[in-house]
Amino acid sequence: MWKSFFQNAADPGSHLLGQLFLRGMNLMHRPGARWALGFFPLEGVRTLLEVGCGGGRTIRTLLRRAPEAKLYGLDRSEASVGVARKINRRAIAAGRAAVSQGDVRQLPYADSFFDAVTAFETVYFWQPLDGCLREVCRVLRPGGRFLILCEVSDPVKARRWTDLIDGMIAYTPAELEQRLRFAGFRSVEIYRQGERMCHVATK
Fold it and tell me: Which is more confidently placed, 140 or 25?
């Protein structure tokens, strides 16, 4: 039962366990998101993409921090999209947000469309990682920034999670930095807080 429950981290379903997991993620990810956004000022950002938006709570946080931005949320899970749309229905109705189902491997946006992109607790499931990071780089304008938050950063310590959740891969800070530079980002800053790590990459 526990393996079935935590598998929702990779792809939440529309069943009860999936819905419970989405609501739990909205609560569990909030402290880490607040910490990471301290290294990612959003003043002047007009177009912002949240990849792997999950239950949509982080979208609300981003809308408050980027009052001039139009925010686009994307998730491969239909259940996640439904919950995120419900939570952010007012912002969507006002034209400040849009939430769509899609895949980071082939982002449905034009080249250089976004000023900033965020990904909270989701790159563990991006396969192939290099191709996904190149897609993020493609849709960012020159000088645009990409924020990644991971609360699991030691593959050895993360073994209990990677064994429990099919398709999950934990990356070290150095490995993720290398992958970002290989994907086309010209600079990468890394911040640590215990097992949390935050990468801020600039195109």
Answer: 140
Tell me the pLDDT tens digit for each residue of 45-59.
Answer: 999 999 999 888 899
Locate 51 and state its tokens: 């990849």
Say yes or no to pLDDT of 126 above 90.
yes
Query: For residue 146, what are the β-bridge partners?
Result: 117, 201
Q: Are 73 and 108 in contact (CB under 8 A)?
A: no
3-state secondary structure of 197: strand
Residue with tokens 């993020």: 136
Percent of the chain residues topping a pLDDT of 70? 81
On whether the CB atoms of residues 61 and 33 are closer than 8 A, the answer is: yes
Query: How far apart are alpha carbons 156 and 153 in whole angstroms?
Result: 9
For residues 180 and 202, give the distance between their C-alpha atoms in angstroms, rounded to a whole number: 9
Q: What is the pTM of this model?
A: 0.86
In the chain, the domains with their CATH numbers are 2-202 (3.40.50.150)
pLDDT at 197 over 80: yes
Q: Using CA atoms, how far apart are residues 151 and 172, in angstroms rounded to an integer? A: 11
Q: Which residues contact 178 (CB under 8 A, 6 or more apart)?
A: none
